[in-house]
Design goal:
40% of the residues lie in helices and 16% in strands. The chain is α/β, with parallel strands linked by helices. Helix 14 crosses helix 15. The structure holds iron/sulfur cluster (SF4).
Amino acid sequence: MDSYLEKFNSSIKNTLFDKLPIEMQEFIKQKSLKLRFTHQEIKQIIDISRDLSLWDEGSIIDIFPEHDQKKVVFARLKKAYEELRCKPNSYKDFELKNIPKEQKFTFATEAKEGFGLGLCPVASEKTRCCNLLTLDAVESCGFDCSYCSIQSFYNQNTITFDSNFKDKLKNLKLEQNKTYHIGTGQASDSLMWGNREGILDALFSFARDNPNVILEFKTKSDNIKYFLEHDVPKNILCTWSLNTPTIIQNEEHLSASLDKRLKSARALADKGIKIGFHFHPIVHYEGYLDEYAEVYKRLLNEFSSDEVALVSFGTLTFIKPVIKQLRERDFRTKISQMPFVDAGGKSSYPENIKVEMFKSAYESFKPWHKKTFFYLCMESHEMWAKCFGYQYSTNNDFERAMLAAYAKKLDIDFFI
Ligand code: SF4
């Protein structure tokens, strides 16, 4: 056997080569035999092929340069790929593929080690962070948002409840003269499971027993039945992650529609529960500014700033495991078709795109400035000044300002 063919066959091991259509496999093999690509180059060519089909941008065969010199071919191929990656992506003719109509998962209840309370998993000193504490009431999520990093942490098909959750929460000893901000929407959706395994009973009791805790339920669901049927302690905040209908339909699979999310928020606000909205991720695509502006306008029209404790903005930041997971899936998404720059070890949009999206978002809520708390999530210190016109000099300053604003809106005591 030609020694290069042996090298090629070992290079494609542990890659996504077998997931490529046969004609594409044959094409890459023939080009490799002719041009003698290195192991790394073969891996990149396979990843490029996966990305093009993921983004519904044709095949690598369409963009493969014709030339005898490998160096020239590889450089031109990378250039063509980067041009496709960086062009503003459009959902106009985008067709979804293999999106499940319903998520099939199994439930598991087991005695979990430790207690899922800790600092926000994506917080970093490289970004201006609010020191949120996250509480993992449930592991893994039933929605299927293409950009979500949870998918790389947990087994997607098993939703796990901690059989000792209630007792652990009851035995949690917190300082009395300190205000805490604890969120339950990081490791799963806070509301989609309702009171399964008594998690909402336990969390409501915890909030009642700890009036100095601001307990935030974050959701993309419309499952508010428990909140409508029970007295809700006033130190509870209910927040919705929102996006444009285009992104909800094409990237936030199985989650509630924008209308359903806003209708649920309206229902809880009518019951006097303080609510909030997270625009995270704001996604850059053709016509995005106008489409987001429509959603911002709806909030200003359908809610009053008295009812809304917070509005936050954030955008896509990818860690390598999520990119790998996206390429492994046989579906379509435009979410990773974006210009990437390094953002504290993760990949995100270049600064100019971020400033455009965050400035437009913040300025759209002018009537609520000074009445509702606005913040950028997981962004650099400087981004605040560029988009909001002010910034916090430390994470603790940011946290203090946030908790003071929330406590005032919730009408609860605030301990510095
Ligand atoms: S700003 Fe965002 S990433 Fe940072 S701690 Fe708060 S919620 Fe987490």
